[in-house]
Design brief:
Blueprint (H helix, E strand, L loop, with lengths): L4 H6 L1 H4 L5 H9 L2 E5 L5 H11 L3 E5 L24 H12 L4 E5 L8 H5 L4 E4 L4 H14 L3 E7 L2 E7 L7 H4 L12 H4 L3 H20 L8 E6 L5 E5 L25 E2 L1 H4 L7 E4 L3 H6 L5 E2 L5 H4 L9 E4 L5 H11 L6 E4 L2 H4 L2
Length: 352
């Protein structure tokens, strides 16, 4: 189907580029892209893919808009707080470009739905913020044989790459399964420069356009690393590891690092009153909003305040989601802390 008069006008700046032209714009119109996450990375990814005229865009995210999102997730406003991200995002994106069709999945990506979902699209773009989802996205993309455009942000540093492009290197070729705990931190646990999400998300959208239109140098086998404070950039090249063959999804993608530590649920804690000490490693702001008692030492202060931790009873360490607490336990163990250290599974907001 040829481009309509409206499309010719709307995408005229693309069409003026000889590397894209009407044929490239037609390819964009005929393509389908699935975006994992409508958060910090997802907002710029979705905005630019919508603006450029991707024919069909899938959005999967089971989260709602929170006030802390507004610092970097530019599709949302204060009036959207409490609403599902996929619904708010699609409503605003439709106003940007009514020529694009959207598939909304207000659900969590799991091993049960990943392969079937991915098989409906030409490309998948990973805007997730956690270790386990990245491996699931990688493996599912391999099984359905579609390219994966990867991005990640951590404090002031961002990364971009393209995996499984023309049977090229994958995420597992770059990051083996056995990884350091720091790779599990997300924005809510470590903080992030708001503008960095826009930089990296835009770069991911750029790779999608390049892949579809067949222009430029695709970031396959290369990892771009950018420091948003200095704007220094480096590219690391890596090769395909033929031993990383994926024939099926793993049984469990959730327990990547946590299964090396003893854990307890909030329900179980209530049965052991008086037999343990609590250690809260969240920020002062989080502590004041909600806490279950115990000593309060933010994770960033732990190295200088270890002497404040009691040395008799077992220590149950907690945070919002159970990630920072794992890092605290890992640090204390490496420092030779002798107490029994137990992680509050899922943190204080998600514990059963």
């Amino acid at each position: 189907m040829e481009l309509s008069a409206k499309e010719l006008k709307q995408y005229s700046r693309h069409i003026l580029l000889k590397e894209i032209g009407t044929s490239g714009q037609q390819k964009l119109k005929n393509s389908s892209v699935l975006v994992i996450g409508a958060g910090g990375l997802g907002c710029p990814i979705l905005s630019y893919l919508t603006a450029c005229g991707i024919g069909r865009i899938g959005i999967i995210d089971f989260d709602i808009v929170e006030q802390s999102n507004l610092q970097r997730q530019v599709l949302y406003s204060e009036s959207d707080i409490g609403l599902p991200k996929v619904e708010v995002a699609s409503r605003k994106l439709c106003k940007l470009n009514s020529l694009v069709n959207f598939d909304l999945y207000n659900q969590k990506l799991t091993k049960l739905n990943a392969v079937e979902l991915f098989s409906k699209y030409d490309i998948v773009v990973d805007g997730s913020d956690n270790f386990s989802t990245r491996y699931l996205v990688n493996d599912a993309a391999i099984l359905v044989n579609i390219p994966l455009v990867y991005g990640s942000i951590y404090k002031f540093e961002g990364q971009v790459s393209v995996f499984n492009y023309n049977n090229g290197p994958t995420y597992r070729c770059l990051y083996p399964k056995k990884t350091d705990l720091k790779d599990g931190l997300n924005c809510s646990e470590s903080g992030v420069m708001g503008t960095l999400a826009g930089i990296i998300g835009s770069m991911q959208a750029n790779e999608v356009i390049k892949i579809i239109c067949g222009v430029g140098d695709i970031m396959s086998g290369k990892l771009l690393i950018i420091d948003s404070l200095s704007l220094k950039q480096s590219i690391i090249k890596f090769q395909k590891n033929e031993s990383n063959q994926i024939n099926e999804l793993e049984e469990d993608y959730e327990n990547c690092s946590s299964n090396y530590f003893e854990e307890i649920t909030l329900k179980e804690i209530k049965k052991l009153v008086g037999r343990y000490e609590l250690l809260d490693v969240r920020t002062d702001f989080e502590r004041n909003e909600l806490n279950i008692g115990g000593i309060h030492i933010p994770l960033n202060d732990l190295s200088s305040r270890c002497n404040e931790i009691p040395s008799k009873n077992p220590i149950i360490v907690y945070c919002k989601s159970g990630v920072r607490s794992l890092h605290a336990i890992d640090y204390l163990k490496r420092k030779g802390f002798k107490n029994q250290l137990i992680n509050l599974k899922g943190g204080i907001l998600n514990s059963e």
